[in-house]
Amino acid sequence: MEAKETCPSLLSQCIKATASTIAHGGCNYLQDVLELPFDLLETLVMELSPLALHALHEILQGNYSEEPVARDDSNTRKRGRYGIFDQAWERLFKKRWNEEFKREQINSGIPDWHQLYCEKHLNECFEQAIETALLPTFSGGIYELTVSDKIMMTISHDQKFTDDWKRLSYHCRRFGPHARYLRLQNVLCVQEMAELLIGCKLERLTFIRIIAQNQVDGACMLINQNRQTLHCVQFIRCQLHPGSMNQVYDSICTEGSTHGLQILNFISSRFFETTPPGLLSLLSSGRDFKSVCFRDTKLQQASAEAIFQTLLQSSCELHSFEMSDNYISTWLSDMSQNSNNFSSLPEPAICLNSISVLNLRSNNLDQNDAGDLCFLLQKMPNLTSLDLSDNTLTDEGIRYLIPFFVWAFGKVKPLSDLSLESCSITDKGFDELLKHCLPVFRESLSKLSLSDNRLGSTVAENMAKLMGESLVKELKIEDISLGESGFEKLRLHLPKQISVSHINISKNRGKNEAAIFISEMISRAPHLVSINAAFNIMPPESFTVIFNALDMHFKERGKLELLDLTNNPQLFISETTSQITKFQHRGNPVVIFSRRPAHFQIMLHDDDP
């Protein structure tokens, strides 16, 4: 017997009709809609499209514009109605951007889903409009850019929308006032866009590929309009010509005054002046800076010294400072000589005293910089995270830094995160580091990265000692030339229980010994969450070793979430490898692997020293 179709109720028909009317602006009684009984309003709100919900939400916010709603507000009626809208926006955000929804849940304390939806939608409109604006055939202005029917369908839930609604300008006016973060490519950084976004209260702005003067003008106009609320500005892949930074400085504060920026980032951008006066003025006038970043800006020694000296003489309590991927070898020694061995630094220098995260990765620093670096680092009592990777410090540089490491691991707020990847360290440098520092970092060091250093198999015993006698939670020893003998020694000296939760042993050509080591790690590390063992040339027989270890681990309710075995093509030749897919964590496979075996000649090449 065929199932009878259920006739829609009168209530459901009324709800849908009202929702459609609101969506298309035909309802002149939105205020009355908000006065509906709570259960009816809740049912209606959950049926609304984003465009209709946005219209109703603005009316609700207007009712309480002079009395902002807090999450713990005692006005039950007000809180209840806001709660309905929060739930509706959360549902719509999750439906449209599920992955971003998960990240927002993790990163945000109490997310404002309406605000997040508006800014995410507007940024998506910008990305799509850029594709049109960059076409050689397009010669119009900002007001002629439109969004796709797909986006319109997403926010209106049907096809009844006008051409005016498709214009980017419409979306700027409707959703812009509620956005707090915008990313603008160069073609959108113009005066017309700034005019469309008048009335916004932006807190974060990212400018991408600003090159021309009219784009600098547009960016500065946007900064100026939001100077009271703006706390983060980023420049990505921009070319900042002479005078550009003076404009940026003038747009955010008047001469002699201070500004409220907390985060200032320059990423893969270029300054066409050695020491841009506008940049130095911007840095010196910032009292609220928490994070400053110069990544891949191709700074030279003179620029680095000027920037650093400016920050040292400021009164900002900087928490994070990054100067990475630049050409600043010897800048510390030059600054030391010019400053009479740092004697001119304020005592205590507020900026140095507050820094907790320092990133000096890939700056062409070498052993000759290590002595001055050691002196400077010891003026940072709150430093907890240090990245010196991709600098050719060598064993000699590590020896110069040992006094700092001993001090840093033993201070009140100890160094807990240290990255020394690709620093040309050998087994001698590692052994000396461990000899002096292991007694003091037993309980303080949480993350250590030594990847891409030719440590060799001889460090295995000391590496096992490190894993057993410290509380390191995250250990990266990728591509340190352990080889089969290194994994064997590491396994033989591994203590019965270790505290590691994340370990990267990839690119070490461990073959079957790597598989045996993995099985031992799984059984001896009760808090193990992830292992990266890619590129270890494991043979087919390693599969059984790993499978048995995983089988036992999950029978005992283990916590492993990820085992990366990619690029070990011989490992999964057997037809029985499909069995490994049964190991899952929250519905996701634990083991990542390559199914397709590589050609025999390629395998030989992979193991060719």
Automatic annotation (TrEMBL):
- At the top level of its lineage, which domain of life is listed? Eukaryota
Name of one Pfam family that matches:
LRR_6
User: What is the name attached to this protein's record?
Assistant: Ribonuclease inhibitor
Question: Which organism's genome codes for this protein?
Answer: Rhynchospora pubera
